[in-house]
Amino acid sequence: MVAPLRVGLAGLGTVGSAVVKMLAQSREQLAERAGRPLELVAYASKDPPRDKSVDLTGARKVADPVALAKDPDIDVFVELMGGEGDPAKASVEAALGGGRAVVTANKALIAKHGNALARIAEKSGASFAFEASVGGGIPIVKTLREGLGGAKISRVYGILNGTCNYILTQMLKENRSFADCLKEAQRLGYAEADPTFDIGGFDTAHKIAILTSLAFGTEIDTDAVHVEGIESITLADLQSADELGYKIKLLGVATRTEAGIEQRVHPTMVPKGSTIGGVDGVLNAVAIDSDMMGLTLVGPGAGGPATSSAVVADLVDIARGRISPPLGRAAAHLAKPKRAPMQRHEGGYYIRLAAVDRPGTMAAIAKAMAAENISLESIVQRHDNSRPHGGDDPRSAAGPAPVILITYATTEDAVRRALATIEREGVVAEAPQMIRIEKS
Ligand code: HSE
Predict the structure, then answer these.
(1) To pair with 174 at 20 to 30 A between CA atoms, which of 86, 94, 158, 242?
(2) In terms of DSSP H, where are the helices of 278-372?
(3) Which domains does the chain have, with CATH numbers?
(4) Looking at 12-21, 95-104, 188-197, which range is the least confident one?
C-alpha cells in the first residue's frame, strides 16, 4: 500500500468546502491519477462550513492555521483562507520554510508576496502551487509555465473576474441594475468577501500580475498594473457597444512593448464576433499571442466546483512528485520588469459625450480631436428618449444629447488631453466616458 498524501486544509469557505467534497467524492479516481490516496487529515477554520453536506469525519481540527502549516503529520498545506496578510501569509511562509508543499488559490497573496514566497520554496525545495489563483478551473498557470515553455509570448489578456463578467452580461441581457446583478453573483459564490475587489478591478490586477510573470519571465510587479473597475459602465454604454458591434468586458492585459511591459486592467470594448467577445456570464477567458501561435482558453472562472478542480489538480501533481519552479524559472533568473507607462498606451477608443445642445458643440469637439491628431472612425449622435424634448425644432430640445465617437489608433495621452479640452470648452454636461478598444 502506497502512503497517502496527507492534506491539511485551512479555510472552509466556498472553495475549501468544495475541495473537501471533491476529495471524498472522487477518492478512487484521484488515487489512480495521483498514484496514491489524497487524504484530508486535518483542517483549520474559523467557522464551520456553511454547506452542511461537507463531511469532516476523520479529520483533526486544528485551531491555528500556522500550527497546521507546521504540523509534521501533514505533507501538504492547502491555504484557502484568502487575503494578502496573516494568517494566510504567515501559514504559507511557515509551511514552505519547513519544506512542506503548499497549494493555494490566493491571488492576492501571490500578487503581493509571490516573489519572496517563490524564493522560500526554492530554498527549502518545497512545491508551491497556485493553479486555482487565476482563471478558476482554467489551467492557465500550467499552460504558460509548461505548455508554452518553448514560445515567445508577446501578449496575454483576458476576462479574469467571473463576478464582473457576470454583472456586465446580465445587465445587458436582462436590463437589470448593477447592484441587482452583483447581489446575484455574491449569492452564487463568485464574488470576493469584499466585492469592491471584484468590481474595482483589483482581483483582475492580481491575476494579470501573476500571468505577466509567467508569460514574460519577470518578477511579479503588481504595483505597475494600471487599474480601473467597472463602476462607471452604464447600461447606455453596454447598449451603444452592442449597436456598434462590440461587447464591454473587464480585461486584464499584459503586453510586451518597445517601452517595456504594459500591464493594465480596465473595461474594454472587444468585437462581438471575437472569441473573447463571446465569453459571457461567470466564464473567464485567457488569450495568448506568441511567435508560434495564438490560443484562447475559456472556462468557469469562479465558484466552488471549478476552483476546487484546480486545487485538486495541484495536489495530484504534488502526490506524483511533479515539481516546477513556482514562477517557471529559478527566482534568480526572473528579470526585473521594465514598466511601460500607461500614457503611452496605443489603441482605439470609444468616447461618450453628453454634448450640450447648441450650435458649435460638434465643431468644438472636432477641433479638440484634430488638435491632438486623433482620427475618428465613426461619430454617432444618439437620440435619448428619456430626456425632455421640445417638439420638432431641434434648437428647442432641452438637456444634453449623447454623442459617441470611435477613434482610430491613438495614444492615451492624446485622448486625455483632447477630453480635458472638451470639458474646458464647456460643451459637455458631464465628465466624458472613455473606454479603450482592444484588438483581438
Ligand atoms: N471573485 C473572483 C471572481 C473569484 O469573481 O472571479 C475567483 O478568483
Answers:
(1) 158
(2) 304-320, 361-371
(3) 5-133 (3.40.50.720), 142-300 (3.30.360.10), 349-437 (3.30.70.260)
(4) 188-197
